[in-house]
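== Sequence, structure tokens ==
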Amino acid sequence: MIEFLKENGELLLRYEPEPTGSNDYLKRLVSSEGYVLRRVFFVCGDLLRETDGESVFTFCVGREEGAYTRLDPAVFMTDHTFYIANDIPLTPKTFIASRNISILRKIDQILGRDCYIGGDWEAVGGLSREAFQQLIDQFPGSAELDKYANMRVSMVLREFFAGCDEYERIYDRYIRRKRENTGYLAPVPEPSEYNVRLRLEQYRAAYRSLAELLENYQAVSEKRWQTAVQDILLLLYPQYICSTREVSIPGLGRRNKRPDFLLVDVNGFVDILEIKKADVLLLVKYRDNYVPSRELSGAIQQVEKYLYCLNASDRARSAVCQKLGSALPDGVSVRVANPRGLLLLGRGDGLNEEQSQDLELIRRQYKHVADIMTYDDLLARLRNIVSALEKRLL
């Protein structure tokens, strides 16, 4: 039996061993060699405060320091030090989970630093008393561990034997009932205020940059324009980790193709980005309809040819892989498989309702070739993100 008590500023562990036929481990309790109780507490003769023959042993396992009790890392076998508020009652269940698993060691492995529990936990960046109790309550017991082990084994066996998938359902049903009975809902982590403010400043700066570019587009060279807009697009499309300008792609004829940018996502897949300036005319009227202008049709055809070359030419794929490979992180390989196009051009704010509807029809018609966006689409997206982030800080 194990219990905890406090005397003269010390946290004491009182151990009453069960009668056994061997007293070897009792000798180790009071020796410098020491002994591990329940696979959780390491005690030795240096910590011994009192003993009643071979029936009761009392060890010092911590000391009060102000409003907290400092637990001896050597006793609890942790790499870091735990401090528990003095008003938290301590029992074996505070430290020992099912199958003699040390709760503090599990926390220590994940947290990797000293930890304060309860008290003025916010001031020291610790863990609230309620959260610690919830962690204890939700720690997996024997039944859950058995069901989890059965589920993991069945996930392998079901590929070879029929009828082995029931254990996954059993485990899911058990977890669902456990949460319903305890009223526990997994907390949804909220981003810290610092991260929200950092993102807000990024998107505000991008919005200002794009607005200024659009106001002075006639004075900006095409190359500088494309580079500035590319940076904004990469912020809005964070799945891309690499962007390379004007990579030469062997064409099906004599002339090579040079897309504005080749984009590579986190899995190594390549897409094409084509950027035109904001003064491109998007629509012209044909009878009672608005159809793609010459500039828009030409840009779509241009993207379609780039995609066709990448899909149809082994030389083109090889050239792209060779060019982009060195720019990617270790472990990410270039992959050319059904690339998609992104096409940015023109303005959409000056369009009337009929023109907007026809432009949307054109976008849908060429969806298999490229996502067609206007600069006002980008402004609206940036504006909405800024507004959403500002509301988080209210």
